[in-house]
Task: inverse folding
């Protein structure tokens, strides 16, 4: 093994934004050693410091099969009892066949860059007492703090949400999410800055970038690279809760540098370096892992969102107004937040092209459209119906209250619904999300409902609901 530099020669570059001194210290503790709760990694303090929360888009409050341990739809990141962060330390040039031997130290974090069949570069990392590290990926191994599986986004959908977990518990062979997708480093001191990096360390505390992965030597002699399908990040252009506006999707490298997108998701040629942007997460930052998109909310941002108790109060207020079907004159009622995907007989339905709210009825189909379901049951939400109030033709779907409060931009009244899925939330929330293009496939982007992942349709992607009050 040839030593190319010392720890002093590897003082972190500005892109990593680490401390200027690089003294070696004890190896970081095992990633799985921290205690965990149902809501995330936490400290034993009475009032633990919360760095922020990660929310997977396309799940309306929980996974379809329920939240279990580290596989869930939402995870809060708290200050750990003991720091487990790492930072770059020394760099080595080695012969590729000797890489496995060079990485035999199980207590040493490292990143291996395979440049050719005969040449590799290994960057050793050392313990950083100033940061906490959280890892995200598809793997269920203990070093992964947040297990994320593919979200089944679609062009049609209903119910409380969709989760593409399948019978294999989310370990589908066709998953495009990396087993060790990314890592988030949070500073343990105020203002508790959180930064994201592509790729996570495996059970041997290593990151391997193979010969086909995009990688390069930086101008200061260090190494950097991109993962196969990439980690994309979009920071909001303004304040997420006050002036929601989409930013520009970028790709984050293994060392946390920001690049323009590649021509396709897995192209070997990297995009152009974006020097005036950083990997620092802010309230409303979106993280796309090529199969699932995560939303980062800060504690300050979450204070503007409704709690589950407040959502329940909003539901009760809607029902207390006794909205009626303008044709059948029967009273409508939003079902319990715990009731999902099962349509209640009193549940309100909407014509998404006009916003008129009705009770369910099995007539109004166009002659060239399919019939209602057997026995008058609810048909699939793809049939075109004619609204009896204004004669506009379009989808006719049940309304579902958005149950994931972290996806709201405010705690305003639920007056609007996404089209065509029928998820109901505040006006500010539907307007904000309808403007955000979410990645789909290798190079496509489309606005989608954050509660179920359904692609938005129509002129705006949402509709104002028109309720009729009681006639008495």
Result:
């Amino acid at each position: 093994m040839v030593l190319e530099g010392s720890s002093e020669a590897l003082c972190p570059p500005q892109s990593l934004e680490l401390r200027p001194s690089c003294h070696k210290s004890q190896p970081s503790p095992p990633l799985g050693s921290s205690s965990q709760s149902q809501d995330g990694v936490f400290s034993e303090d009475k009032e633990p410091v919360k760095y922020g929360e990660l929310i997977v888009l396309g799940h309306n409050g929980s996974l379809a099969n329920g939240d279990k341990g580290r596989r869930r739809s939402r995870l809060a990141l708290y200050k750990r009892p003991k720091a487990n962060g790492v930072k770059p330390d020394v760099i080595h040039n080695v012969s590729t066949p000797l890489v496995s031997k060079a990485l035999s130290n199980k207590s040493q974090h490292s990143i291996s860059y395979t440049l050719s069949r005969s040449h590799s570069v290994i960057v050793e990392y050392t313990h950083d007492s100033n940061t906490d590290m959280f890892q995200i990926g598809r793997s269920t191994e203990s070093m992964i703090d947040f297990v994320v599986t593919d979200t089944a986004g679609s062009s049609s959908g209903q119910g409380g949400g969709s989760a593409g977990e399948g019978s294999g518990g989310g370990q589908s062979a066709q998953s495009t999410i990396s087993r060790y997708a990314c890592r988030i480093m949070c500073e343990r001191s105020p203002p508790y800055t959180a930064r994201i990096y592509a790729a996570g360390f495996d059970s041997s505390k290593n990151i391997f970038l193979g010969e086909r992965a995009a990688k390069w030597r930086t101008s200061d002699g260090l190494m950097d690279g991109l993962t196969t399908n990439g980690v994309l990040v979009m920071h909001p252009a303004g304040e997420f809760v006050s002036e929601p506006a989409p930013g520009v999707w970028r790709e984050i490298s293994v060392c946390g540098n920001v690049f323009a997108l590649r021509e396709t998701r897995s192209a070997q040629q990297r995009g152009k370096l974006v020097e005036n942007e950083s990997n620092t997460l802010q309230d409303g930052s979106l993280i796309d892992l090529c199969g699932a998109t995560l939303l980062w909310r800060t504690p300050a941002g979450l204070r503007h969102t409704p709690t589950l108790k407040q959502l329940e109060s909003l539901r009760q207020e809607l029902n207390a107004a006794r909205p009626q079907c303008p044709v059948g004159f029967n009273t409508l009622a939003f079902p319990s937040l715990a009731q999902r995907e099962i349509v209640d007989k009193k549940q309100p339905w909407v014509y998404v092209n006009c916003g008129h709210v009705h009770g369910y009825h099995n007539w109004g189909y166009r002659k060239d459209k399919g019939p209602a379901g057997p026995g008058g049951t609810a048909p699939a939400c793809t049939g075109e119906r004619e609204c009896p109030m204004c004669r506009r033709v379009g989808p006719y779907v049940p309304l579902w209250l958005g149950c994931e409060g972290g996806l709201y931009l405010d705690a305003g009244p639920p007056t609007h619904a996404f089209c065509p899925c029928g998820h109901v939330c505040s006006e500010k929330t539907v307007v904000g999300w309808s403007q955000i293009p979410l990645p789909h496939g290798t190079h496509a982007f489309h606005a989608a409902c954050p509660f179920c992942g359904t692609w938005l349709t129509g002129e705006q992607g949402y509709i104002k609901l028109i309720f009729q009050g009681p006639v008495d």
About this structure: Residues 1-40, 154-172, 368-382 have pLDDT under 50 and may be disordered. The longest strand covers residues 85-94.
